[in-house]
Amino acid sequence: MSAIWAQTLWLLVGIATLVFTPVALGFGLDWGLAAVILALLLMLGWHLLHLHQLMAWLEGPLNDPLPRGRSVWEIAFAGLHRRVRIRLGQQQVLSETLERFREAVQALPDGIIAYNRHRHIEWLNERAASYFAISAQHDRGQALFNLIRHPDFVAYIEAARFDEPLIYRGGRVEGLTLLLQVIPYGADENLLVARDISQIERIETMRRDFIANVSHELKTPLTVVAGFAEMLADDRAAYADDEIKRYLGLIYEQTTRMQRLIEDLLTLSALESGSSPVSEERVEIEPMLQSILADARVLSAGRHEISLTIETPTAIAGCANELRSAFSNLAANAVRYTPQGGRIDLTWRAHADGAELVVADTGIGIAAQHLPRLTERFYRVDRSRSRETGGTGLGLAIVKHVLTRHRATLEIESEPGHGSRFAARFPRRALLN
Ligand code: ADP
Question: Which residue, among 388, 383, 345, 384, has the nearest Cα to 363 in the 3D structure?
Answer without folding.
Answer: 345
